[in-house]
Amino acid sequence: MDDLQFYPTPSALGKKAWGKFKNRNFTRVLEPSAGNGDLAYAITEDDYRFRHRRGNIDVCELDISKHPTLRAKGLPVVGLDFLQMKNGAIYSHILMNPPFAVGAQHLLHAWKIVWDAEIVCIINAETIRNACTKERQMLVNLILQHGEVEYIEGAFAVEDAERKTNVDVALVYLRKQANVSVDIVGSLLEELNVDSTSAESLAGDYREAQELALPKSMIENSVAAFNAAVRAMREAVIGEARAQYYARLLGQTMAARNGDAGSSTKDTSVDYVQAEVGKRYNDLKDRAWSSILRSSDVTSHLSSAAQKRVEKEFDEIKKLEFSVTTIYGFLCGIVESKGQIQIDMCCDVFDEITRYHTDNTVFFKGWKSNDLHRTQAMKIKASRFVLPNHKSSWSGDDISYESKGLLSDFDKVTSMLDAKGQIGFGLRAAFDQHFDDLKAGKRVKTDYFDVRYYKGIGTIHFYPTRPDIIDRLNRIVGRHRAYLPPPEAGVSEAFW
Asked: Which pLDDT value is given to residue 202?
């Protein structure tokens, strides 16, 4: 806690911070160090309508253990480390209570990434009063030119402060305003040469986009491509607004003047540009996170069912800032829950095998503990099991995509149970490479199974060549579902 300097914002201070904003049209707000959401939830009653639209308040939080609490409060988590965030142009307001030790750094970063926004920041008063570093001096000059500051004594020493401290705070307000005449209108009229309006001169320095020279890492490649797409998108939106501005100077089309058509010109305001950039930015994040979830780095370790379970969380995942830090944070989350994911994958395969043929299983009297008594415990036979409903395609040259997905799941689980990262020659490869032999009724050997395919009735017969792997599968599922006692339970040999 001390490493992250987590001091939740007391209610009175939070309300005072919200009250500093002069523009009450909260289009989209960012809270970069959200903690448990205290500051985001301190919005004043005067802004009642916005209070019930908290989907407009995005948050960052370095401590991932707090993310479930934030999401439960309706606050979309868009990033971990705010200092890694680059795309702040979509925000109309930023409200901050950063760690006191790095307050100046966080506030300067907020100023750097916004385009047209108000910023309110709770910061250690000494950061402003004692401008002993270049960073602090920059901040003081920024306040003099673009804002104001109010000092508050004992703001974190009040009764409802979750963590108390006698440090005085400074409530800093900054206003960064887009220069419409430069950012949108531009200076095209001065640059145009009326006497040389050939096609070549109108094209200017346009060139075909060259293939990006990207770093080798797949993740870094994806982030570089995303950042390039965001930059191009922003330029396109501003370019469209600029084009519309000059189209307005020319007036309406003849059809519009005659009432035969509506006006084709669009809004060119800062609000329009900000909203349009936000909409397109979300679309690019959706595409980028989809590519990560569908990449081999993720799918090679997940069964099809496990993949679907991860994709169910996509609405939350795609809100995250698309950066190297957040991608690795997401992948670390998968790694941290790897044990449960592996158990779920084993259960998926176990259920697929036991679902159809009773001959695939052996029933036994399960573990009895106190009043819990399972009489329908089951395990997979280690000699042979059969799976139906796998008829070949209409051309007879292959089995279905779904059937191949199931075989890939079997490969992933068996190699996992054998503590191997990748399978050598698995079931999927057998059907891809030896389907003619399988159609002819021949028995094909893979790393963990001999397999035979009966094309006419569409059944696949599996003959395990590693009974120890099937035993591990039975034990993992059995313990998870309490068919078997936990490892620490004292059970007589008679049970086994």
From this structure: 40
